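queue> pop job 88
queue> type: inverse folding (structure -> sequence)
queue> payload:
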């Protein structure tokens, strides 16, 4: 539903109840999404989110304790160790898990994801992020019955899963030293009921 974070491909297993509760918190959900496909430290994440390091570190510890993320490495920094983590579980919810969340949690996660998408799109547009030939901006107003809505939702989930697989292959090429230089991109797919 938002930022490749809210719903997984159909058929993915349901989440453990404690993990479901943990990542239903909008900030933990956002942090887990930021660690999906990359490695970062709480310090880096706090700077990116413009939040206090203590607040981010607290939520990172909770995610680590639940096994949603793992410590990848440490690096010495000014007499201390900086810890770097990556996600080991997806930030997506199955349809069943998504429905288990309280409406306030669903709306909080959705609101945070939409804020991120709109902010990212605006910044990219202002800085020429849509100038590349590979950029895509498409829109298709539709009139769908319930069966067609389900088909579209499945198609979009499959597309995101495929994009994540492509990203993993690029990461493998980078780690093997076989990849060319990379460009940070973002894929956001929106499909929603139009409300006048």
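queue> result:
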């Amino acid at each position: 539903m938002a930022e490749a974070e809210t719903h997984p491909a159909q058929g993915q297993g349901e989440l453990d109840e404690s993990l479901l509760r943990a990542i239903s918190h909008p900030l933990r959900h956002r942090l887990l999404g930021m660690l999906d496909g990359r490695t970062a430290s709480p310090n880096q994440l706090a700077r990116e989110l413009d939040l206090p390091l203590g607040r981010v570190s607290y939520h990172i510890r909770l995610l680590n304790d639940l096994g949603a993320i793992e410590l990848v490495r440490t690096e010495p920094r000014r007499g201390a160790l900086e810890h770097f983590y990556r996600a080991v579980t997806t930030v997506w919810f199955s349809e069943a898990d998504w429905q288990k969340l309280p409406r306030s949690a669903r709306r909080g996660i959705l609101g945070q994801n939409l804020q991120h998408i709109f902010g990212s799109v605006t910044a990219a547009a202002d800085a020429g992020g849509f100038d590349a030939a590979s950029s895509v901006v498409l829109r298709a107003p539709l009139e769908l019955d319930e069966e067609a809505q389900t088909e579209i939702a499945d198609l979009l989930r499959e597309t995101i899963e495929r994009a994540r697989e492509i990203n993993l292959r690029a990461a493998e090429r980078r780690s093997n030293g076989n990849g060319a230089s990379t460009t940070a991109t973002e894929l956001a797919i929106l499909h929603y009921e139009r409300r006048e």
